[in-house]
Amino acid sequence: MKVEDELLAIVRRRLGAGLLGPGDDVDFIKVGDYRLVFNVDGFSAKGVLLEFMDLRDVGWRGVTACVSDLVAKLVKPKYFLHSVYGSDVEEVREIVEGIVEAAEEYGLAFLGADTNKGEAAVDVFCFGLSDLDPPRLGGARPGDKVVVPEGCWGCINRCLRGEYWEHCKRPKVPLELLERLRGYEKYVHASTDSSDGLVISLYKLAWASGVTIALHEPPPGPLGEEGLYGGEEYLPVFVVDPSASEAVEEAVKGRAIGEVLPGRPEVVYKGRTLDPRGWEWF
């Protein structure tokens, strides 16, 4: 279990979990015939800054991280709020400029903000509406296929070693997937986003669903098997009914890289059990 999950468990033991259940990065409440879907994401600037990044990129990344969680749940983000910390006005201004640029990119409406003095950091709150319940972490069923889009899986590893990849500077969530997946929502039994790395994201699905996830190939991208462990891809991971797998693969411009099997909660790759590790702040 990630340290973050352990800390969240302290809250859930006292206050309970939301409608999607423990472990999910997103939750929702019902408002009339709709679901108001929301999440929050944030970090300190020094925790994400690479040598080729500036504070505008930190603001961009805060919005992108928030948007990614909603898109993975097949929900189009519509509104956002943010909270920004900076040691001076210029630091705050730079972060906010990046936030605004990302909000324009994703078509978000601004609801409000808070500004504080301190170590440079950003928190972003995103909201969207849906007429369907978002797919849960624990919805994977034996026989389902694991489908992911093509993307920069594992690229953060290269960036941490000093290489320049545009994805690491300004990652973009593929919002267009939502339109292409319209009509297939009921076939997505479970989902999450990969911001902490593909393998740990798959473990979250396996633990919540009580199943084995067996991978037969790496995610589609430039790094092959290196893409199994990474982080900050900001791409969705879908667990799909096998009857719709090919259609979903085409819609997300990706492919099925594995399947769900009955068995103990674990992730295996070509018969080898993978370590449940991923991005950790602590």
Question: In terms of topology, how is this protein built?
Answer:
Layout: H1 3-15, E1 27-31, E2 34-44, H2 55-72, E3 77-86, H3 89-106, E4 109-117, E5 121-130, E6 145-149, H4 155-160, H5 166-169, H6 176-180, E7 188-194, H7 198-209, E8 212-215, E9 235-240, H8 245-252, E10 254-261, E11 266-269, E12 272-273
Parallel strand pairs: 3-4, 8-11
Antiparallel strand pairs: 1-2, 2-5, 3-5, 6-9, 6-10, 7-9, 8-10, 11-12
Helix pairs in contact: 2-3
Describe the structure.
The protein has 282 residues and is α+β, with helices and mostly antiparallel strands. It folds into 2 domains: 3-130, 60s Ribosomal Protein L30, Chain: A, CATH 3.30.1330; 137-273, PurM-like C-terminal domain (Phosphoribosyl-aminoimidazole Synthetase, Chain A, domain 2, Alpha-Beta Complex), CATH 3.90.650. It is built from 8 helices and 12 strands. It has helices at residues 3-15, 55-72, 89-106, 155-160, 166-169, 176-180, 198-209, 245-252; strands at residues 27-31, 34-44, 77-86, 109-117, 121-130, 145-149, 188-194, 212-215, 235-240, 254-261, 266-269, 272-273. Strand 3, helix 3 (89-106) and strand 4 (109-117) form a beta-alpha-beta unit. It is globular. The chain starts with a helix and ends in a 9-residue tail after the last strand. The model has no long low-confidence stretch (mean pLDDT 94). It comes from Ignicoccus hospitalis (strain KIN4/I / DSM 18386 / JCM 14125). GO terms for molecular function: thiamine-phosphate kinase activity. This is AIR synthase related protein domain protein.
